[in-house]
């Protein structure tokens, strides 16, 4: 690789890392997509790569792209909360909404051909996260808040920087993308669970803690015919360092890896200007003990212990459908739909009121418009329809409930809906232009 290319690699990595910010959820705490095009298509596109942010889903897709870069940002506007029925004993009664209504989420990417059959690139994006905030209202003794531990909420943020290489072998392209991951968490309002923690001083209200690690993403795209393409990608788990400040909450002493995932899909050009896409994705939450271990029963001194209680999440499956109509060379219109299964079962609603991530149906739309020969603006809008899950309140171990119990006199109902608006700028460099920063628009 030339000295210029190495300088590009280092500079682009620094640029994308500075823009990496995590986000809210769609499939559990994974996003639908990581750029305006993917979002407008409902998350579809593993078999149809047309811009540099495709690297974040399928690294094989960059092999046919021109040298280009992308800068984008999304505004996430979720509404979520919980309500109770009957006489709850563990959670504060009432109809309670979370604060923190708007979240900015940047993303960026850069792709450059190496030769006619290979390319490299890098991308930074937020792959998921949780952010809730419940005040002291709807008082629960002794300190108020949902669990009696005062102000409560979770802020889990995850950011990723991927470095990809793709090689084409005739009609088949293969890609690999080693990925660095950083996650940060701040959790408040669980002091009332101190008797159930293996380390009560590392349970709640300890400020921000950081975790570092990484994994690898693999991808392939096969052009079966000129009109029909198949794509697939898989990510290993992101193996992360422990959250030491919350080792008394998360199973295995604060272990919180990021789950593996697989995605497969097809794309078909109905006409040269009209493409339809369909994807399926599976996320292996069952591979992360602190997320998937049962949240019931919670016994004395078990939180944070080896294979201790988690949040009871199940693996999720999702389906994405997208249509892109390239109306003219400088204008493309997009529509999408995304459906995801709910990771939170009805018997795990109590602890999960801190993170009611139960998205199901999403509708999306967007467009791409060329403002110059080199620059294109992409817009996307996603609406997540209201979804809810209802179950019995879970009671932890007490002298009167030595094995825990479900409160037959109370139900907890979690709900979530939201909107997302995304904008991105894509720049394609002129052939022979070796500048790293665009010299003209």
Automatic annotation (TrEMBL):
Main subcellular location: membrane
InterPro entries in the cross-refs: OMPP1/FadL/TodX
GO molecular function: long-chain fatty acid transporting porin activity
Location(s), subcellular: Cell outer membrane
Pfam families: Toluene_X
Membrane topology recorded in Swiss-Prot or TrEMBL: Multi-pass membrane protein
Keywords (A to Z) from UniProt: Cell outer membrane, Membrane, Signal, Transmembrane, Transmembrane beta strand
Signal peptide stretch: 1-25
SUPFAM superfamilies: Porins
One of the record's GO cellular component terms: cell outer membrane
Family per similarity comment: Belongs to the OmpP1/FadL family.
Protein name per the record: Hydrocarbon degradation protein
Organism encoding this protein: Methylosinus sporium
Organism taxonomic ancestry: Bacteria, Pseudomonadati, Pseudomonadota, Alphaproteobacteria, Hyphomicrobiales
